[in-house]
């Protein structure tokens, strides 16, 4: 059974429950969390472990206009996306299920621009999720690797290096 990790930007239990029930009907195992907007304590780091597990097939973000516009949420989501992509690769499947005016890819932070964008009321939403979860991840070979390391009270670091060779100098 394919596993889906759900990040709900709003603490909307009804929406999450409905989404999980819909995914179960399609034979998908869903788990997730409610987004905690606390950059100082690096709460964005919380779901990194389940997202980087090999059996997680898709990361789904339940978003809305208000929360997706918040700079701190966008920043935290970007760091989490970079951290997950550092382990799972840039082609790791990401889907944003949005309530409200559907954002364009260009309006999203760069690490989220590869997300499949769908409206919450899309009549074929379940089928699209199943298709995305069962598609093999895109095999992208970047020229460099990028990862994020974070430890509350100590700080956060970006690791940049070549994908498969060494760079001389620093």
Brief overview:
With 170 residues, the chain is of the alpha/beta class.
Q: How would the blueprint of this fold be written?
A:
Elements: E1 3-8, H1 13-25, E2 29-34, H2 48-52, E3 56-64, H3 65-68, H4 71-88, E4 94-99, E5 116-119, H5 125-134, E6 144-151, E7 155-162
| Helix-strand pattern | EHEHEHHEEHEE
Helix proportion: 25-40%
Low-pLDDT windows of residues: none
Question: How are the strands of the largest sheet arranged?
Answer: 2-1-3-4-5
Give the number of DSSP strands: 7
Shape: globular
Description:
The chain has 170 residues and is α/β, with parallel strands linked by helices. It is built from five helices and seven strands. The strands form two sheets. Strands 2-1-3-4-5 form a five-stranded parallel sheet. Strands 6-7 form a two-stranded antiparallel sheet. The model has no long low-confidence stretch (mean pLDDT 91).
What keyword list fits this structure?
170 residues; two-stranded antiparallel sheet; single chain
